[in-house]
Write a structure and sequence with these properties.
- It is built from eleven helices and 16 strands.
- It has 295 residues and is α/β, with parallel strands linked by helices.
- The structure holds nicotinamide-adenine-dinucleotide (NAD) and FE2/S2 (inorganic) cluster.
- The site of FE2/S2 (inorganic) cluster has 12 residues, from loops.
Length: 295
């Protein structure tokens, strides 16, 4: 069992939990994710790792209730336990595995949208701890939905906050801030964009105009998280990839976002999964037997 050490509501719809998970805390790196299960019958819920403390053997997760399982998770308090915490899953961020001296030469821009701020934070923190101060744009619909502002301020080179309604920071979506920064003379060698798929799509269209290579972290529906079920299938360039084992990070300029967003919707119904199976054949389902995608 994995005990919840701290449970906090960050705003009306976003929750933070610190969970004792020694093995994950010991091995995880920024960019990776984990899967939690509340009890024997519980759904497997993939969540990005927002922070980790190797000494305290804890990991921090941030989530937004989007279905029955994440809604039920909001009732968990400090002292309660998850039955399972599986991870770390997926690959660490390129920026933490690439040659450090090469990374130090780069001007890096992070773009975090809404809850996507949570997976951006450990990357910016890791870079800061290794002497690299990246610029960070954080966007949210409104002031109340900005999360981790103080934490991000402590590790970012420059932090640019923007709200869609102009209630805090700059006004407008994150893509407008990218445009403004470039117009102000800023130059970037790489951009990392993490947030809703629609945001990542438009970030990539924007960075493409400025020839800024862009990494995105894809979070399609996941079931097993081990490359078996096919739920997280994506087209990247002319290749088929699975976000859980090949990602979650990909070259954003190659990701087919329109297909990923459409697939996300279709995967939610049995009828949709049947149609995907017909269209995608063998690569639709690896036969894990958990998701019902083959029925
Ligand atoms: P949101 O809808 O409030 O969007 C956050 C910001 O993204 C906006 O403030 C805006 O600046 C930008 N944005 C949104 N649409 C845009 C567009 N069309 N063009 C340019 N910029 C745009 O975000 P939210 O409600 O916090 O996000 C929830 C979604 O994020 C969920 O679908 C969740 O699955 C996803 N998410 C993704 C990751 C990941 O790893 N990619 C991590 C956590 C959450
Ligand atoms: Fe990636 Fe199942 S979640 S293949």
């Amino acid at each position: 069992m994995y005990q919840i050490v701290k449970s906090e509501k960050l705003n009306a719809n976003i929750y933070l939990m610190v969970v004792k998970a020694p093995r994950v805390a010991k091995h995880c790196l920024p960019g990776q994710f984990l899967i939690v299960k509340m009890d024997e019958e519980g759904e497997r819920i993939p969540l990005t790792i927002c922070d980790y403390d190797r000494e305290a053997e804890t990991i921090t997760i941030v989530f937004q209730p989007v279905g029955a399982s994440t809604e039920a998770m909001t009732a968990l308090k400090a002292g309660d336990c998850f039955m399972d915490v599986v991870g770390p899953l997926g690959n660490p961020s390129e920026l933490v595995t690439d040659d450090l001296e090469e990374t130090k030469k780069k001007k890096i821009l992070f773009v975090a949208g809404g809850v996507g701020t949570a997976p951006v934070y450990p990357q910016v923190k890791w870079l800061h701890e290794h002497g690299i101060d990246a610029d960070v744009i954080v966007g949210a619909k409104t002031k109340d939905l900005i999360i981790l502002e103080k934490e991000m301020e402590a590790v970012a080179g420059n932090l640019y906050i923007t709200t869609d309604d102009g209630s805090y920071g700059r006004s407008g979506m994150v893509t407008k801030v990218i445009e403004d920064l470039v117009a102000e003379g800023k130059q970037y060698d790489v951009c990392v964009s993490i947030g809703p798929m629609i945001m990542m799509k438009f970030c990539c269209l924007t960075t493409k105009k400025f020839n800024i290579p862009t990494i995105v972290s894809m979070n399609p529906i996941m079931v097993d998280g081990t490359g078996m079920c096919g739920a997280c299938r994506l087209s990247v360039g002319d290749e088929i990839k699975f976000a859980c084992v090949d990602g979650p990070e990909f070259d954003g300029h190659l990701v087919n976002f329109d297909e990923a967003m459409k697939r996300q919707q279709m995967y939610k119904t049995q009828e949709g999964r049947a149609l995907l199976k017909l269209r995608e054949g063998d690569t639709h389902h690896g036969g894990c037997g958990h998701c019902g995608g083959d029925k």
